[in-house]
Amino acid sequence: MRNASEGNGPTGGRAAPLFFAGLPPGEVADLMAQAPKRTAGAGRYLFHEGEPANAFYVLLAGQVRLTQLTAEGRQVIVRLVGPGEVFGGVLALGDTVYPVSAQAVGRCDLMAWDAERAMAMLERHPKLALNVLRVLAFRIRDLQDRYRELATERVERRIAHALLRLARQTGRRTEEGVLIDTPLTRKDLAEMTGTTLYTVSRTLSRWEQAGLVALGRSRLTILNPHGLVNVAEDLPPSAALP
Predict the structure, then answer these.
(1) Mean pLDDT value of segment 7-24
(2) Which of 101, 118, 132, 208 lies in disulfide reach of 113, CB 3.0 to 4.6 Å?
(3) Phi/psi of residue 51, each to 5°?
(4) Residue 12's pLDDT is what?
């Protein structure tokens, strides 16, 4: 799985963020040259759930964890943002508060516009506004899929879907398989899938014995992606996928 920030482009060795898709390269270079740049250290919060939505972000490098608090006060991972992705996009819809908190997983490089600049930029460049709407529409579909999984699927399928989703977002190919390249605890996975720490630990241990995954300290490698897809889709273990 190739990182979205790889390649050559106006960021000096990195491809232009997906936010700028469809714009002429010269226009992208001009916009990025004018953009305010920020760096966030590991663990820093860029904004908190419920705070006024006063900035819009494009991630250039690193990872950002989007989380929400449950009614019981537990923090749940909603999404992991990777290079090239936008977040804080509720600003484009006129929302007044952030529905999630955003925390840097490690060191992050990003561009940030305050509300006034962001809205002016989107008005001047309708293609950018359309890109933001496409991103938000995709994330709404993703949340709908997760809601359906929680409501209708047994726990093993939910855990498999969560790992495959994380692999798409942050996966990196290694000699062993696909490494989910972000710190991930079993507690995180339990909260993402609406189950218990015990159930996640028992399920992952069984999958490790079966050769589906390899477990490390806050790391997980998918050794057999096709086998995990079989679990997620409730297919027979012997089902061969192309």
Answers:
(1) 58
(2) 118
(3) -75, 155
(4) 38
